[in-house]
Amino acid sequence: MSLPDNLADDNGPAIEVTGLECGYEGKAVLKDVTFAVARGEIFFVIGGSGCGKSTLLRHLVGLHAPAKGTVKFLGCSFTNADTAGRRAMLKTFGLLYQGGALWSSLTLRENVALPLEEYTTLTPREIQEISALKLAQVGLRGFEDYYPAEISGGMKKRAGLARALALDPAIVFFDEPSAGLDPITSRKLDELVKHIRDTFGTTIVVVSHELASIFDLADRVIMLDRAQQGIIAEGRPRVLLEESGDPRVREFLSRGEK
What we know:
Helix content: 25-40%
Strand order of the largest sheet: 6-7-8-3-9-10
Number of helices: 9
Largest sheet: 6 strands, mixed
Strand content: 15-25%
Shape: globular
Distance between the termini: 48 Å
Structural class: alpha/beta
Radius of gyration: 18 Å
């Protein structure tokens, strides 16, 4: 599926965030957050518990409106867009929620079909075929008619990813994708994420504190800090581990070392 004409700009980053202030009920959690994500990059938002990682994600994808600042997708302002513009941009990115967020009363095929029914004019037969294809892409061929309660936690994450990929988005956001998974299942999910980027050129943004995923997948990271209410480091994770002058950064990235 092609991007809307006004979002087909091939120049510049996939995501631009400028001066973003995020919070709830008038209380700021993050201030003056500025960064960019290159097209085709696997980009991680990292940091300890309570630093604002998931808060930032919710403001990026429009679940909450920022108090200040702007978010651009593919060169177009999401923050300042009108209703039609925002709806067009919503089709350019997918979101995998922490728990998969599948509807328990729907089969996996029906869950994946939801964004296709909402944002396209495809026929029911076409939607069924695409839903089956997306499930196959994440290793769930043959499970189309299963319900979420009938599959494992890792399979639920894969089904949620299939739904996030339903509209062939240019960008996919992941909220703590490894949460609740054993190390082997987590590693397989990481491999799938990398495969999607390498195969389709998808830009990937991951919110995570899992070191294995950070070092195995991330092209680049930003690290948030609760006390500073913003970004305290940006770069390649191994370079930050070896060269950062901030003890908070080195401590976070060296947690697995003995």
